[in-house]
Amino acid sequence: MSQSLVVQEFGIIVAIKDNKPAILNPDFLKYTGIVPSEWELARQPVFSSSVSQVTYTNGVSIIAETNRVIFVESLEDKKAEEISVAAIAERYVKMLPNAEYQGLGVNPRGYKGFESADTDAARRFMSEGMFAPGAWQQVGTTPMRSTINLVYTFERAPLYLTLNEAALRNPDETSTPIVLFSGSYSYEVSGETASEKLTNLLAVMSNWKTDLQEFSDIINDKFLGHQASSRVPDVFTLNNVAAAV
Known about the structure:
- The structure is a single chain.
- The chain is 21% helix and 33% strand.
- By secondary structure, it is of the alpha+beta class.
- Residues 227-245 have low confidence and may be disordered.
């Protein structure tokens, strides 16, 4: 497996007070120009009073809930300049200028893979690489497993980072141990009027490329110990990832 971070998914979450999930439907997205007309649905949309979801064959999903709209893209083999979900999110909020926007989350997710034969590699990366040895690790009948939550402070927004042990399912039904790195840049949206809030939301949303590159650099440089690639690494879809047993 590659020693670099594999960035597999990128999401933008827009917090909206009293959001109406029923607004989200394929016709609204198509005829307003939010998504290209040639995009094809991957499955039947989901509609209810509390949640609506539209998913396309190119890996983009849009989920509307009563307090937020989630735009998420499985990156597969895309480069950063090929990511479309940020532009989709921008067009969406511009179509709803009077909504009461409250915040923005920029959420990259990726993993570090290990040789499939070494099934304990991800656990060792967490327990031995992230912690100093101690008696507290020897409690119980099986090796201790861990989840790590970190917060980094930057001028534009804090970064919340979670590390988890997991496994990647392979086509031959075997699994490859991985460590998942899930990031979230959390932005506040300020302003007295709807127009001011929309302007501020669009301004912080424009940071997404910086956020994605910084996330990749932090993991590659500080956790994996080498310089990051000049582009977002090749990726796998999140559907192939399952929590480790």
